[in-house]
Amino acid sequence: MGKQPVKLKAVVYALSPFQQKIMPGLWKDLPEKIHHKVSENWISTILLLAPVIGTYSYAQHFKEQEKLEHRF
């Protein structure tokens, strides 16, 4: 029981560089979608961004204070 090679046909899909309608639904009503997502998840956004912004501002302040400390 030997193995016989099987011819496979490869299908190649490509987008035309002239095709402009690749994902039209993604950009449709984009401001409305962003507003809906933000208004729906505002508490999660605040809980995510507050520590990130706080840590960044603390690091910038510490860096500035350290720079000024070595000045004199």
From TrEMBL:
<keyword id="KW-0812">Transmembrane</keyword>
<dbReference type="InterPro" id="IPR020101">
    <property type="entry name" value="Cyt_b-c1_8-plants"/>
</dbReference>
<keyword id="KW-0999">Mitochondrion inner membrane</keyword>
<keyword id="KW-0472">Membrane</keyword>
<keyword id="KW-0679">Respiratory chain</keyword>
<comment type="similarity">
    <text>Belongs to the UQCRQ/QCR8 family.</text>
</comment>
<dbReference type="GO" id="GO:0005743">
    <property type="term" value="C:mitochondrial inner membrane"/>
</dbReference>
<dbReference type="InterPro" id="IPR036642">
    <property type="entry name" value="Cyt_bc1_su8_sf"/>
</dbReference>
<keyword id="KW-0249">Electron transport</keyword>
<keyword id="KW-0496">Mitochondrion</keyword>
<keyword id="KW-1133">Transmembrane helix</keyword>
<protein>
    <recommendedName>
        <fullName>Cytochrome b-c1 complex subunit 8</fullName>
    </recommendedName>
</protein>
<dbReference type="Pfam" id="PF10890">
    <property type="entry name" value="Cyt_b-c1_8"/>
</dbReference>
<keyword id="KW-0813">Transport</keyword>
<dbReference type="GO" id="GO:0045275">
    <property type="term" value="C:respiratory chain complex III"/>
</dbReference>
<dbReference type="GO" id="GO:0006122">
    <property type="term" value="P:mitochondrial electron transport, ubiquinol to cytochrome c"/>
</dbReference>
